Every structure is written in C-alpha cells, then in structure tokens.
Amino acid sequence: MGNELISVIVPVYNMEKYLERCVNSILRQTYGRLEIILVDDGSTDTSPGLCDAFAKKDSRVMVVHKENGGLSDARNAGLAVATGDYIGYVDSDDWIEQDMYERMYRACVEQDAQLCVCRYFCEYADRTLGGGSAESVPLTREELLRIYIGGHARYVIYNSVWSKLFRRSLVEGMTFPKGRNSEDITYTTRAFCRLEKAVYLDRCLYHYVLDREGSIMNGARGERMFRDELPFWREHIALIREAVSEEMADFASYHFWRRLLFYYIDFKNAQRAGDGTADGYARRIADELRGDRAAIGRVYGTGAVSAGDRMRMRLFLFSPALYAFTVRVYEKFVIPIRG
Predict the structure, then answer these.
(1) Is 176 found in the same domain as 296?
(2) For 154, which DSSP code?
(3) Residue 173 and residue 75 share a domain
C-alpha cells in the first residue's frame, strides 16, 4: 500500500483549553506521513504560543498565523499551503481516534476511492453517543448522494468536512465561502458531485463536541439560518442539478422542503416557550415555502413522494397555522398512545 502524504488542516481561534487534546490526538496517529497545519486565526489567548510549541516539538507541524477571518478563511489559509496527496480537517475543540487516518487512507486505496467518510461520536457534556457496524461500504456517486440527501437507516453521512478524507485532486481549486456559517454544505456537495467512487466506514473515528459553551454552532440560530444555511442548501440543489441530474436535484429539493417544515415547527415551539423572535422566523419559513409553491407542486405530484408527505405539504400551504396546530395535537395525543 502507498505511503502518501495527508495534510490535516486545524483552524484555531482562542482554543487554549482544548488545543492540546486535539493536536495530540493527531500527533499520535498510527499513520505517520502527516502534514499538520495549525491555522491561528488571530487568537487573543495563549493559542498562538501553543501552536508554535507544537511546531518546535514535531517537524510535521506547520503554523500559519493570520488576522481573524473566521472558520472558512482559516481553512482556506490552510489549503493555500497544504502539499498533501489527501486533505483532512479537524476542528480544534474536537479530537480523533488514534487510527482514524490510517483506516480512512487504507479504505481509499483498497477501494480506489477519491473520498472516505467515517461515522463519528457525538460528545455531550454528560454522555457520548456512538454506533456503527465497522463495515466498509463502497459507494458510487449516486448511492452516496442518496444517503447524504435522504438519510439512511444505518449509515450516517453528514455535510461536515471533518468526517471525511478527500483525495487532493477531487477538491483542487475548491475553497470555503469566507465570513459564512454552514460552510461545509456546499464544499461537501461540490466534492460529492465531482467524484466517481467513495467509501463509507461505519465506524466512529472522530469525536465531535456539541456542548462546548460559546461554540460556533450555538447562538443566533434564526439569523444564521436565513443568512447562510438556507441559501447554501439552495446552492446545494443547484449544484446537483447542474452536475448530476434533474431527478437527483428534485430529490434534494424534496428533502429541503421537508427540512423547512421541521424548522417551522421548531420555531413555533420556541415561540410558545417564550422566544419573542421565533414567530418572525416561522413566518419567513412559510414565505420560503410559498415562494416555491410551483416547484413543490411539480415534485410532490410525482410518485416519488409519499402520500403522507403530500398531505402534510398541502395542509401547510393551505394554512401554516392549521398545520402547526395539527402537528401539536398529533405529538400530544397520538404519539403517546402509539408509544
């Protein structure tokens, strides 16, 4: 088997509490041919000095110091200096299993795949959630996209770049959109649309921390959703339509609209819990769906959409308020009876 270089890009911003755990987990990898790029994104704590200390201790570590520009800008700065045959990403508050890159690289080589995706642990303050069968599953582009878009009963393929190992040629010329959140959506979608073959490892190899106070995933959910996430999901659909097929793009649209219905209920629940801003966001979700009414009619008119989903969307477009009431009644009375 080959011995190609893997570049691991680690954006760092004020991570003095977590950086040692993260970087040590990369330094201890059983796969040794690593180029570890720590991108200090204008940190104001002791992170810059910690990064430099790692570089002095291990020649595989390179440090880039730059002005603060956000996660996407830091990743792009790492990409600009990366020389590896493969590209991986680790967020500096997370950590990885000791054999993560060896397993992912080996799977790529054995399956002649341009990309490997692994399962991951969800690290909460009081518990760790994992799972997986340890299977190695080769996937065509279409098979990968269907799991990514529509989900799977057993396999977990999320848009995060940190759960993936990309062959460099697959992502050549690709960068992250600066100053935006949910930036992984279009990067991952674009990579998926470009590839011919991928491999999925149904084994948890990455530790994703969800409960860290002040995490980029917490905070002003509504504004971030409308500024970044929803436009990126629409771009995701456009990329699939252009690079893959109309059928796959319609499949992505269908799951996007289902996502919006879930978001609508989330905001209505937040409104009932006392969030004064939530009703405005719920109304904006309703406007998004009404704006797509013609496309929804076309896609939901096909046999690819279940009768239940067709009924739910018809009810929502008739009256969002009645839809929210129906969901509330169902959750309060029907689900407990079934349980």
Answers:
(1) no
(2) S
(3) yes
